[in-house]
């Protein structure tokens, strides 16, 4: 197997909103002493921004969720290794058959030997939330999979793993908040659009 030839190492993986991604060695970013000026982490276009930086083992699966509700899966070692200040590669050019590149909403690393248990919770810009059993995301092919049905006037914003023993709290831009137990939410299928 190809995986057997890849050393098991921790890497930092950077994703931008426009879909550029790369992996770098963690030691690339050294601790700076007082008065440090910082270093450039990536050269980005004017309309782009770093969306996430995650730590993943080279053998881990990485799930990428788009704002339109699709999810893709790649092995961490398939993500191009780049220098610290390089932009990275466009995910959709390398791994997706989609005609129209989409912006990324969230990225999760899953250990390759992990049991798919618990839930994935998704939240949209317009306040829809959905809980889906994690095991529904086991078979994701290169074409991606619909993770949540998103209407044209909405977009996926957050995705996080959680168990029914946890609580969620959502806070709006205007400062309104709601807190609830995830066990009180009914699990829905992948194609569902969630509840308001």
- Mean pLDDT, to the nearest integer, reads 81
Secondary-structure-based class equals: mainly beta
The helix-strand sequence is EEEEEEHEEEEEEE
| Count of helix runs | 1
N-end to C-end Cα span: 45 Å
- Rg: 18 Å
Strand order of the largest sheet: 3-1-2-6
Produce a short descriptive summary:
The protein has one helix at residues 91-95; strands at 10-16, 20-24, 50-57, 61-66, 70-75, 89-90, 104-110, 119-124, 129-133, 145-146, 156-162, 167-171, 177-181. It is an all-beta fold and 196 residues long. Strands 3-1-2-6 form a four-stranded antiparallel sheet.
Describe this structure in words.
The chain has 196 residues and is mainly β. Helix content is 3%, strand content 36%. It contains 1 helix and 13 strands. It has one helix at 91-95, and strands at residues 10-16, 20-24, 50-57, 61-66, 70-75, 89-90, 104-110, 119-124, 129-133, 145-146, 156-162, 167-171, 177-181. The strands form 4 sheets. A 4-stranded antiparallel beta sheet has the order 3-1-2-6. A 4-stranded antiparallel beta sheet has the order 7-4-5-10, with no helix packed on it. Strands 9-8-11 form a 3-stranded antiparallel beta sheet, with no helix packed on it. The chain starts with 9 loop residues before the first strand and ends in a 15-residue tail after the last strand. The relative contact order is 0.18. The mean pLDDT is 81.
């Amino acid at each position: 197997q190809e995986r057997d030839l890849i050393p098991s190492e921790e890497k930092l993986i950077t994703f931008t909103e426009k879909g550029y991604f790369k992996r770098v060695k963690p030691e690339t970013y050294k601790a700076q002493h007082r008065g440090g000026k910082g270093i450039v982490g990536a050269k980005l276009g004017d309309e782009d921004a770093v969306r996430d930086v995650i730590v993943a083992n080279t053998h881990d699966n990485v799930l990428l969720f788009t704002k339109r509700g699709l999810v893709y899966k790649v092995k961490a070692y398939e993500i191009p290794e780049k220098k610290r200040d390089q932009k990275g590669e466009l995910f959709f050019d390398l791994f997706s058959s989609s005609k129209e590149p989409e912006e990324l909403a969230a990225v999760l690393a899953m250990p390759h030997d992990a049991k798919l248990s618990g839930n994935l919770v998704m939240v949209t810009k317009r306040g829809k939330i959905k809980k889906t059993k994690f095991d529904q995301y086991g078979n994701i092919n290169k074409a991606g999979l619909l993770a949540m049905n998103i209407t044209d006037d909405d977009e996926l914003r957050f995705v996080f793993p959680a168990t029914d023993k946890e609580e969620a709290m959502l806070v709006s831009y205007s400062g309104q908040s709601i807190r609830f137990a995830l066990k009180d939410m009914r699990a829905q299928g992948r194609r569902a659009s969630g509840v308001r």
